[in-house]
Amino acid sequence: MGEKVDALEPFHPDRVASRILGMGDMLSLIEEAECSVDEDKAAKLAKKVKKGDGFDLEDFRDQLQQLKKMGGMGGLMGKLPGMGQIPCTLR
C-alpha cells in the first residue's frame, strides 16, 4: 500500500478486513511474491546454495532488492498473521 500509482492493488474486502483485524493477508503476499520475484535468479541462487558455494554479500543484496520491490519489510510484515499485535516501534 502506498500513495503512488504502482502501489495500487485490487480491492478484496475480505483481505482488507483480515489485515485490519491483524490476521494478515497471505493470499496477497503470495500473489505479490509471484509477480516480483525473478524466478531465474531464485533458481540460480537455490542451485548455488545447494551445491555448497555459499551465500555472499551480492546474493544478500539481491534478496534485499527483491524485498524492497515487495514493499519493504513493513509491507511484508503487514501481510503476515499476528503482526498487528506487535507494537509499531518493533516493526
Question: What does this 3D model show about the protein?
Answer:
The structure is a single chain. With 91 residues, the chain is mostly helical. The protein contains five helices and no strands. The protein has helices spanning 13-20, 26-36, 39-51, 57-69, 72-78. The longest helix has 13 residues, at 39-51. The protein is elongated and about 45 Å long. It starts with 12 loop residues before the first helix and ends in a 13-residue tail after the last helix. The mean pLDDT is 81.
The biggest beta sheet is recorded as: none
Number of helices: 5
The shape, in one word, is: elongated
Total strands: 0
Helix/strand-derived category reads mainly alpha
Q: What is Rg?
A: 15 Å
Distance between the termini: 16 Å
Strand content: under 5%
SSE ordering: HHHHH
- Could you name the ranges where pLDDT drops below 50 across 5 or more consecutive residues? none
Mean pLDDT: 81
* Portion in helices: 55-70%
Could you give the topology of this structure?
Elements: H1 13-20, H2 26-36, H3 39-51, H4 57-69, H5 72-78
